[in-house]
Amino acid sequence: MTAEVGAGVRRTDHEDEYFLWQRPELRVRVPESARRVLDVGCGAGGLGAALKAERPGLHVAGIEGFPEAAAEARGVLDEVLELDLDTLDALPHAAGHFDAMIFGDVLEHLRDPERLLRVLLPHLAPDGVFVCSIPNVKHWSVVVPLLVNDRWTYEDAGLLDRTHVHFFTLDEIGLMLDRLGLEAAEIGVNDHAPLPPGLEPLVDAAVRLGAEREETAARLGAYQYLLTVRRAGA
């Protein structure tokens, strides 16, 4: 079953659920001092609405490219911009306007995620943060089928979501942030599927090739990275 989105575009049941996610693991990373927040790829506004309910007086704006989702978000957020993130080149806001920007599983869907961050960075306050959730392509559920069965199979959802354009590991995220003059002030993990004990031989093989055991096991078990990002040295 699908729902209509704009002219000739359809939204699946999975997307309906995705657009309504409230993402408590991201909301908790928004600083208590924040007064203006931008939810990039806000969907129907579920995250922003939950954040506003928790923090009366908080101004939450959103950016959303799906017309139907943007219309829903306007009912719960303070401001919604209907924009294409792949072509966005500026915001109608002053420099430093937002205290935090949230990217909840958004960057992997973009042709050039680094370009978008560069465009939005001037609109972030000097002491502001990016709050990001980014899938980890090194997760064992991707590595094992590739290594054992020669399979890299796109799905309707998950780490190999067929709408993903970019694939990140933790080091690749770090390199992108370095190029932007940013750094991860805090790194967390969503462990939807930690490394099963039976896959320890995979870690053993990596160690024999020069990897560090504990860090390798941790990264193979990290489904998504949750990052609080600041300007370097802030």
Could you characterize what this model shows?
The chain has 234 residues and is α/β, with parallel strands linked by helices. It has a single domain, classed as Vaccinia Virus protein VP39 (Rossmann fold), CATH 3.40.50.150. Helices cover 31% and strands 24% of the residues. It has helices at residues 13-19, 24-27, 46-54, 67-73, 113-120, 140-149, 170-179, 200-208, 213-220; strands at 2-5, 9-12, 36-40, 59-63, 79-81, 98-104, 124-135, 182-190, 224-231. The chain is globular. The chain starts with a strand and ends with a strand.
Highlighted features:
234 residues, alpha/beta, Rossmann fold, two-stranded antiparallel ribbon, 9 helices, 24% strand, disordered N terminus
List the helices and strands and how they pair.
Layout: E1 2-5, E2 9-12, H1 13-19, H2 24-27, E3 36-40, H3 46-54, E4 59-63, H4 67-73, E5 79-81, E6 98-104, H5 113-120, E7 124-135, H6 140-149, H7 170-179, E8 182-190, H8 200-208, H9 213-220, E9 224-231
Parallel strand pairs: 3-4, 3-6, 4-5, 6-7
Antiparallel strand pairs: 1-2, 7-9, 8-9
Helix pairs in contact: 8-9
Give the overall shape, derived from the CA principal axes.
Answer: globular
Main sheet makeup? 7 strands, mixed
Helix percent band? 25-40%
Main structural class: alpha/beta
Fraction of residues in β-strands: 15-25%
Number of strands: 9
In round numbers, the mean pLDDT is 92
The first-to-last residue Cα distance is 48 Å
Number of helices: 9
What order do the SSEs take from the amino end to the carboxyl end, as H and E?
Answer: EEHHEHEHEEHEHHEHHE
Tell me the Rg in angstroms: 18 Å
In the residues, how many domains can be counted?
A: 1
